[in-house]
Structure formats: structure tokens, C-alpha cells
Specification:
Layout: H1 2-75, H2 84-99, H3 102-116, H4 130-148
Helix pairs in contact: 1-2
Length: 149
């Protein structure tokens, strides 16, 4: 009788473990999908911001270029055209950021850093562990209780 009960409990325990593993796997998959969707939305917002900024900066660039060109012609002073050069670099960068391949080049460079220069990604004092977090929490809570007294 005890053997049958033990066998049944073992089977139930095994089923429960499999169910828990399946549930935790589903939860992790959902969490990864959610984090990826959040990352995609943040990147979409950055691209949208770059495009919106480009509209304003492009208008500023056009007005400034026309004004400086007219001023240089009127005063016969070509040095008034000097600010157009750095403004052109800024405009080119914004255009590349908003509509060009900047993101693809950045992703490629990031992948290169991750594979060949992984030591640059190490955190100071290494990755936080449960013990280091608990130590900091205890230090804070003892400090808070000390300050209250």
C-alpha cells in the first residue's frame, strides 16, 4: 500500500516539476518578448526624434545659409560663410541618423566590440551578485536605523 502511494506521489511530483519548468519557461519567453518590444519602441522613438529634429535643424540651416550667403555677397566678406561648414557636418549627421544607415553601422560596431573587445564591457567590481546587493541593503538599513536613533 505504501509503495503505491509513494509511486503516485513521485509521479505527481514529477508532473508538478515539469509544469513548473514549463511555466517558468513561458514566463521567461514573455518577459524577453516584452523587453524586446520595449527596446523596439524606444528605438522607434529615437528615430522619430531624429527625424523631427532634422526638420527643425534643416529649416534653421536653410535660413542661416541663405542669410550668411547674402551677407557675404552684400559685404563682400567671404569669411561670413565659415559657419556653414560646421553646420553642414551637423546636418549631414542628423540626416544619416534620421534616414541613413547610422543605426546599422552602430549595431555592427557594437557587435564587433562585444566579440573582440569584450573586456571593455566589464563593470567595475564585476557583475552585482545577490550577496553584494544584500550587503549594501543591510548597510543601508543599519545606517537608517542608526540615524533614526
Amino acid at each position: 500500500m505504501g509503495f503505491l502511494l509513494s509511486k503516485s506521489m513521485d509521479a505527481n511530483f514529477k508532473k508538478q516539476q515539469e509544469f513548473m519548468l514549463h511555466t517558468s519557461r513561458l514566463q521567461m519567453e514573455r518577459q524577453l518578448l516584452m523587453q524586446n518590444q520595449m527596446r523596439e519602441r524606444q528605438m522607434a522613438m529615437q528615430v522619430a526624434w531624429s527625424r523631427e529634429f532634422l526638420k527643425y535643424f534643416g529649416s534653421f540651416y536653410a535660413v542661416t545659409t541663405v542669410g550668411l550667403t547674402l551677407g557675404a555677397l552684400k559685404r563682400r566678406n567671404p569669411s561670413l560663410l565659415a559657419p556653414i561648414i560646421p553646420l553642414s557636418f551637423i546636418l549631414a549627421f542628423q540626416m544619416d541618423s534620421a534616414y541613413g544607415t547610422l543605426i546599422h553601422r552602430m549595431r555592427g560596431e557594437a557587435e564587433s566590440v562585444m566579440t573582440s573587445e569584450h573586456d571593455r564591457l566589464d563593470l567595475p567590481h564585476g557583475t552585482p551578485t545577490f550577496e553584494s546587493i544584500e550587503k549594501a541593503r543591510r548597510a543601508r538599513s543599519s545606517l537608517a536605523s542608526f540615524l533614526e536613533n
